[in-house]
């Protein structure tokens, strides 16, 4: 095992330890009861461990790691249904600010590193609604022409919109001020889109993994005709088929996030998100079916991950939209090769 692999495993282990201690069912239930997803306490814990600042350069107080270090961390965050904007702030926003140095980055990166600020990123048509925008202190608006502008809370109007997943609230954001131009770089926009899509795939695969775990645990203790329902062949086959899909989705998602800087990074991210969407949709259906009536109840906790999966599946590109884009790209490539 390489040092790089050891570092990644240690980061995942650290993430799991923190989330088991501070983001268990009691925390998620409390967030639902209070109708508030983000809390300064949990975000502060993530900042204290250095996870929030992992991708930030050392001269701004971060660890200077690469995105490949965080693929497993994102998977773990999805598995624990963490109600915090880690992908949006700790991955997307820090990557944009790090790629476009200047006064804005010098001001906001130390605040993000310290856990004192949240930031969200708008990526054109890919983000009609922004998760956790109501809690954000900074909006980074990435346009198709490559320009990147930063807007403070005072320069935006945020209107919450109904969200299927209350632990991942959405909002419509309207810019009311001029903002600050950070620069213009199409490569930054393209890379950020790939990070968003691949990162969402990792979160989605993690949530699907948790649905599988909950289902296997339940069918192992639920009895019918004097024996656990998990002992019936039909149930075994369904669980085994789902396990294969979830494992393949996890492999695709993690490898795509690791490869965002490769020439085919955007295509790999789209393919991984589409496949993770399929696996998660299957996990939702099978989990509900194998749980029976209890799976629909508010008192049982399955709904936390059912809603998380459905919300993530529609985030940063739906399965259908991503596959359509991949098909168009492939068709254009084949057409060009034939003409050549």
From TrEMBL:
<keyword id="KW-0560">Oxidoreductase</keyword>
<keyword id="KW-0274">FAD</keyword>
<dbReference type="InterPro" id="IPR013786">
    <property type="entry name" value="AcylCoA_DH/ox_N"/>
</dbReference>
<feature type="domain" description="Acyl-CoA dehydrogenase/oxidase C-terminal">
    <location>
        <begin position="200"/>
        <end position="331"/>
    </location>
</feature>
<protein>
    <recommendedName>
        <fullName>Acyl-CoA dehydrogenase</fullName>
    </recommendedName>
</protein>
<dbReference type="InterPro" id="IPR009075">
    <property type="entry name" value="AcylCo_DH/oxidase_C"/>
</dbReference>
<dbReference type="Pfam" id="PF02771">
    <property type="entry name" value="Acyl-CoA_dh_N"/>
</dbReference>
<dbReference type="InterPro" id="IPR037069">
    <property type="entry name" value="AcylCoA_DH/ox_N_sf"/>
</dbReference>
<keyword id="KW-0285">Flavoprotein</keyword>
<feature type="domain" description="Acyl-CoA dehydrogenase/oxidase N-terminal">
    <location>
        <begin position="10"/>
        <end position="113"/>
    </location>
</feature>
<dbReference type="GO" id="GO:0003995">
    <property type="term" value="F:acyl-CoA dehydrogenase activity"/>
</dbReference>
<comment type="similarity">
    <text>Belongs to the acyl-CoA dehydrogenase family.</text>
</comment>
<dbReference type="Pfam" id="PF00441">
    <property type="entry name" value="Acyl-CoA_dh_1"/>
</dbReference>
<dbReference type="InterPro" id="IPR036250">
    <property type="entry name" value="AcylCo_DH-like_C"/>
</dbReference>
<dbReference type="GO" id="GO:0050660">
    <property type="term" value="F:flavin adenine dinucleotide binding"/>
</dbReference>
<dbReference type="InterPro" id="IPR009100">
    <property type="entry name" value="AcylCoA_DH/oxidase_NM_dom_sf"/>
</dbReference>
């Amino acid at each position: 095992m390489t040092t790089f692999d050891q570092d990644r495993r240690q980061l995942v282990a650290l993430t799991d330890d923190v989330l088991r201690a501070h983001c268990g069912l009691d925390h998620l239930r409390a967030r639902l009861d209070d109708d508030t997803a983000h809390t300064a306490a949990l975000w502060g814990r993530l900042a204290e461990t250095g996870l929030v600042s992992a991708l930030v350069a050392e001269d701004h107080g971060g660890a200077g790691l690469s995105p490949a270090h965080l693929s497993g961390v994102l998977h773990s965050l999805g598995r624990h249904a963490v109600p915090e904007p880690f992908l949006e702030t700790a991955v997307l926003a820090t990557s944009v600010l790090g790629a476009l140095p200047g006064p804005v980055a010098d001001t906001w990166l130390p605040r993000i590193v310290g856990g004192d600020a949240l930031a969200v990123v708008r990526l054109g048509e890919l983000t009609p609604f922004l998760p956790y925008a109501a809690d954000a202190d900074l909006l980074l608006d990435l346009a198709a022409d490559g320009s990147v502008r930063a807007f403070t809370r005072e320069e935006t109007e945020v209107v919450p919109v109904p969200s299927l997943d209350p632990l991942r609230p959405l909002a419509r954001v309207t810019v009311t001020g001029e903002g600050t131009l950070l620069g213009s770089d199409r490569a930054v926009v393209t890379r950020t889109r790939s990070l968003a899509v691949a990162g969402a795939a990792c979160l989605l695969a993690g949530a699907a993994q948790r649905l599988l775990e909950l289902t296997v645990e339940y069918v192992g203790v639920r009895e019918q005709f004097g024996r656990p329902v998990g002992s019936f062949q039909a149930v075994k086959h369904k669980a085994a088929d789902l396990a294969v899909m979830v494992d393949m989705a996890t492999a695709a998602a993690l490898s795509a996030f690791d490869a965002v800087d490769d020439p085919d990074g955007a295509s790999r991210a789209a393919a991984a998100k589409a496949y993770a969407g399929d696996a998660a949709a299957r996990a939702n259906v099978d989990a509900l079916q194998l749980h029976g009536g209890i799976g629909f109840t508010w008192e049982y906790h399955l709904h936390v991950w059912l809603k998380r999966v459905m919300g993530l599946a529609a985030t940063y590109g739906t399965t259908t939209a991503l596959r359509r884009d991949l098909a168009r790209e492939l068709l254009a490539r084949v057409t060009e090769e034939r003409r050549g």
